[in-house]
Design goal:
3 copies of one chain form a homotrimer.
Chain A lengths: L4 E2 H7 L3 E3 L5 E2 L1 E2 L9 E4 L16 E5 L9 E4 L2 H12 L17 E2 L4 E2 L4 E2 L4 E2 L4 E2 L4 E2 L4 E2 L3 E3 L4 E2 L4 E4 L4 E4 L2 E4 L5 E4 L4 E2 L4 E3 L5 E4 L4 E2 L4 E2 L4 E2 L4 E2 L4 E2 L4 E2 L4 E2 L4 E2 L4 E2 L4 E2 L4 E2 L8 E3 L4 E2 H12 L1 H14 L7
Chain lengths: ~325, ~325, ~325
């Protein structure tokens, strides 16, 4: 954090305008409902503008056109983007420091691995034979890459993730499971980001592929032979079973399960906790334990809630019509 | 294990009374349905008292008032508590030994981290910049603390857990996901215990907070900005999405999901596998894929089971009333 | 990979017959729908034989009796088994090499641990006090064994798995959770295979046991005191709560949850994402958020889908019969 930040100084840094007290000292940044004196906060989502009446923050970053009589403001085009610019500078000692980038002395890198420029590999990570890691990629601590894991440029892999472990492939033969050899690769295209404790299994024969710009939250499991297109997002604890094919721009909520061997079409969106059992159409929005179009799901849920009432009505009709179960 | 344990010796150690054979040698401790000759077992939950008729154990620890004609007994106020006292002494070579406590030579501790008294840090754990670890806290092997993780006193963190990794925060802009910088902290209050492979993400701006006395089982995921009160329990594989606020004394069964940005009130209890989609009232007991009051959930489940019968009845009525679908 | 493979050479290696061009050069192996010129592929499951008309592969391994006019074929008794034999030889630089087997210099093995013959222990793995590891067992990187973990012969444990961590056992007493000491063991019988990031908790008092030949996918959680029989399979992200007893030859789909203290009988099969809440009968096939016989589950699901239609019909009847809700 620089020695002193003021309202006007921050506005200038963000190419924004300010109103109120130019020399107001800003000593912290906090969420609007938790902020106190000295704190700067922001309203990126209009839903949170209600807090402008109650926040104890000293100043707020808002969009150019937001109407408010809050005294100390910084106005910018896009408050979310402004925060994205300000936070790393304001909280400059947080996160991985540029000066700490590099390959940690405890990282084990196989002699056949090929490592790009400005790659960061954190402590105790293990990079196996024939791995390739693209320029500017960041691998945090305790990551395991088995052999033949190919990672693109500007990727990030958080602590504890395991890439290239064997897929779950067995045949059942005379009362025992026999291993199907798993010898494929894992391929991550550029700008893939992956949270902590993800597992990406190697292909059995071909490759497990994650497309450009995909983002995976923590505890995401991608099974063998899965092919994922570009710019998909997988929230925490979601999982994809073997040989599923996923298109571009798909979004999966937390703890979503995708069945094996199906095709999830471009732009499919799946609500949290749903299970996608069969192939989808482009742009479908799905929800449910067994996922179906979200409109159908909601209608069914509403009817399920009315079931007790329906049952009682049915009973009255049965009595009225003198219908006996056994008649 | 000490050289020789007898029925009367154990009773004395537990401040209990004994009946039967004073010098009976106890060579093992086992669950009542699995125990054999030489074993001591116990009945803490009255449900298990039925096994008193069939157990092959040589002796049983029971409460002072339990009625049984089992020959060799130790009677104590609270059998569960007695076992809690006996086990670590009887099986004295099991678990982390006091003599092994300390900071393992392979643990990497950043020079800016502050470590309390009698802290244990296991092999290959990584403690990042500006972390603080309170007195008497135990961190097992392969744990990763990113920077600015603040841990209270008498906490336990099991192997492989990751604290302080980036939250899953992106904006979608012109066809790609852009990272929202994650620079907040993780704060664990005193006496938090956490199983293996938990992930606790750092706040985006403020802190992710876990209150005093909370217990987390294995594979629990707590997303960025979540605030959890005191003395909550999270069973295995449960997960909390970003910015949720959880009160005190809440209990979450295995694989429960909590939606982001909601408020779970004090004393809420959630059955295993449920998904809490909206804010709760104090003391609510919830269940269901989309969680609702457990009484409603059970009633709906019962009606769902009767659906085939209802459907057939409805069909009979339709025929009786000469109602045709298209009429 | 050997310098040159031909159709007839591979057929000979597999003890199969060939038809077509004996000297056809094979330069790769790929899935039938992804294969291109130079690739050998296979049809193990008749479902995939449809791709014989469109594949760009140069040659296909098929069973002896499959009817096809594809020009270049290798015929064997069991194509899946043939691939299992061919892949490790053809892709001979993939996976853990025999020459790399051994105990990595960074593996930490407690002086009281007993390690069998030809055991592989990968980098940064930690083997605690009184552990026993059977002959031919393979433990990959970053695995943590707490104390008293007993592993049989020919087992495989993938990266990041944690065995022997404390079970989740607490009593709630005067407003706080009190730890129940966890001092049991973990026992894996021979030929157990376990994916990445599994957690197997130690018994509280007795043992957590996984029977011979069981296979666990990634992210599987087995709680304290669970006893699992022989030759069971657990797909990714499945979990078993404390003290459950599971028989032989059970199969659990992805993300299945098994309740604590129940008995899952021999040969039970559970569909993905289901929750087994109560004990099962031998050979039952179950499905559902609260698992029930799969036939019942499917029937109920079909009725749920018809609920809107049923509700409308009921409404017509109500009007026809002049039934008012309050009457």
């Amino acid at each position: 954090m620089q020695s002193e930040w003021t309202l006007s100084g921050i506005a200038s840094f963000l190419n924004g305008t300010w109103q109120g007290e130019a020399d107001l000292k800003i000593t912290g940044i906090r969420e609007i409902h938790l902020a106190g004196p000295g704190d700067l906060t922001f309203v990126a989502n209009p839903v949170y503008s209600k807090y402008l009446k109650t926040t104890k923050a000293s100043a707020v970053i808002v969009s150019r056109d937001l109407q408010t009589d809050f005294p100390n403001l910084i106005r910018v085009e896009d408050p979310q983007e402004a925060m994205g610019k300000l936070i790393p500078v304001f909280l400059s000692d947080r996160g991985l420091q540029e000066s700490d980038r590099g390959i940690h002395e405890t990282a084990l890198i196989h002699e056949t691995a090929v490592i790009g420029k400005n790659v960061h590999i954190g402590p105790y990570s293990v990079i196996g034979p024939h791995c390739e890691i693209g320029d500017e990629t960041t691998i945090m601590a305790h990551v395991t890459l088995y052999d033949h894991v190919i990672i693109g440029k500007k990727c990030t892999i958080h602590a504890g993730s395991v890439l290239g472990s064997d897929g779950f492939g067995y045949t059942f033969h005379k009362g025992v499971f026999r291993n199907i050899p798993q010898r494929g690769r894992v391929i991550l295209h550029d700008e893939v980001e992956m949270g902590a404790h993800c597992t990406i299994d190697r292909g059995s024969l071909g490759d497990t592929v994650i497309g450009e710009g995909c983002k995976l939250d923590n505890h995401v499991h991608i099974a063998h032979n899965v092919k994922i297109g570009k710019h998909c997002a997988f929230a925490g604890m979601s999982g994809v079973a073997g040989s599923a094919v996923i298109g571009n721009y798909c979004v999966f909520g937390g703890r979503v399960s995708v069945n094996g061997h199906i095709h999830v079409a471009d732009g499919t969106q799946v609500a949290a906790m749903s299970g996608v059992s069969k192939s989808t159409k482009p742009g479908e929005i799905l929800s449910g334990y067994i996922a179906r179009p979200i409109h159908d799901f909601r209608r069914e849920q509403a009817w399920i809630r009315r079931l007790p009432e329906m049952g009682e009505l049915l009973n009255r009709i049965k009595i009225l019509l003198k219908l006996d179960k056994d008649s």
